[in-house]
Amino acid sequence: MSRAIQLAKRGRYTCKPNPQVGCVISKNGQLIAEGWHAITGEEHAEINALNQCDDASGSSVYITLEPCSHHGRTSPCVETLIKAKVKEVIIAMLDPNPLVSGAGVKQLQDSGISVRQGLLEAETAKLNTGFIKRMQSELPYVCCKMAMSLDGRTALENGDSQWISSEQSRLDVHRLRAASSAIVTTVDTVINDDASLNARSLDFDVKQPLRIILDRQLKISGKENIFSIPVDVSGKIIIYTEKENDERINELKNSNTDVVSVAKSELWLKNVFTHMAKEYEINDVMVEAGATFSGALIEAGLVDELVIYMASKLFGDNAQPLIRLNLLSKINDAREMELADMRRVGKDLKLTYKFT
Asked: Is the pTM of this model over 0.90?
C-alpha cells in the first residue's frame, strides 16, 4: 500500500477534481502491475494497472481508495475488477462520498472477491483532504497563503510589498498553486497587484487552477492583466458578485470567464464557497489576498490551513498587518492553530498551521 500511495501522488497536479489514487497488483508474491489516476476523464488507477496484466486472475489488488461503482466520466472500476477475476482487493479507505461509500466493497464481496479495508488509511487520507471535505461537507479545503516579515507585516505603510519572500519561496508558491483546484482572491488584489493567479516556472505538467475573483459590486473592468493571459497557460476565470441583472455581467462573460450572482446575505462568503464546491467540483482552494479578506474568511470559519512564508526582514510597526480580525478582549478568545509543518525555503521559513 505504501507503493500505491507513492503512485497516487503522481496525479497531484493533473487529476483534479478527481482524487489521487494509486494501485498495485501482486500475484504469487510478485508485483505484476501498477498504475495511478493521471488525468481527469482518462482511466482510473485500477484500470491502468489491469491494462498492464496479461492475466490478473487470482491476484491481490492494493488500492488507496475504494473502487468506483457508478458511471461518471469513466465506467465503474468494480465491474472491471470482477471481470478480471481478482482474488482479493485491499483498500486503504472507503469512498468519502456518502451516496456511494461502501457500494464498491459490497459489489466485490457479492461477486465472491475478498475485501479488506483500512490499511494505511490515515496516510492515504492526507492525499485527498480537499476531495474528502467536499464530499462530506460540500465545502472545499481552504488554504490561506501569505508572506510576512519577521515582525508579522505584509507590506510597508505605502503598500509596497514586492518582494517580501525569496525567489525560492515564490517558486514554492507556484507549486502550491499547481496543486490547487482554484486560486481565490478579491477584485482589489487583482486591480492593485496586477495578479495573474496561474502556476508558472514549473518543470512538470499542470492542470491550471481555476481563477476566482470575489467582486461584490462588480468593480472589475475586464481589462486587467488577468484577462489577457492565454488560456493554454491559465485556468478559467470565475467572478462572484452580489449584482443581479447587471448589463456588465453579459459584457464580462465569455468562453473563459463565468460571472456568478450570489444573493447578498450574512452568509455570502459561505454560500460562495459552497457554490464553488458543488457547481465547479473544487476540492482545494488557495487564497491569495490581503489582511482584510483573509481575516474575514477566518472569522467565517472557512479557512482550514495557513501557509506563511516568513522572511528575515523587519518592516516596523507602521507597516501593514498580516491578518485583520475582530477585536479580542481576552487571550482565551484567540483562535488556536496547530503547527503542522515547518521548513526552510531559500532564506525564508515556511510555516504551515491547521485550525483546530
From this structure: yes
d(CA 95, CA 98): 8
Distance, in Å, from the CA atom of 321 to the CA atom of 319, rounded to the nearest integer, reads 7
- Before 96, cis peptide (omega within 30)? no
Catalytic residues, by residue number, are 46
Interatomic CA distance for residues 229 and 225, integer angstroms = 7
Q: How far apart, in whole angstroms, are the C-alpha atoms of residue 58 and residue 87?
A: 4
**Is 62 within 8 Å of 23 (Cβ atoms)?**
yes
Place of cell 507585516: 153
Give every CB contact of residue 12 below 8 A, 6+ residues apart in sequence: 20, 179
Q: Which of 163-167, 224-228, 264-268 ranks highest by mean pLDDT?
A: 264-268
Rounded to whole angstroms, how far apart are CA atoms 158 and 56? 66
- Per-residue pLDDT reduced to its tens digit, 85-97: 999 999 999 999 8
**Cβ neighbours of residue 283 closer than 8 Å, sequence gap 6 or more:** 16, 17, 19, 128, 130, 131, 133, 134, 140, 141, 181, 277
Lowest mean pLDDT among 117-126, 264-273, 277-286, 322-331: 322-331
Main-chain phi, psi angles of 32, to 5 degrees: -115, -15
**Contact partners, residue 89, CB within 8 Å, separation at least 6:** 60, 61, 63, 67, 81, 108, 113, 114, 115, 116
- 161 with 315: CB under 8 angstroms? no
The 3-state DSSP class for residue 20 equals coil
Place of cell 450570489: 262
Q: What is the pLDDT of residues 167-226, one digit of tens each?
A: 999 999 999 999 999 999 999 999 988 888 999 989 899 999 999 999 999 999 999 999
Neighbours of 343 (CB within 10 A): 10
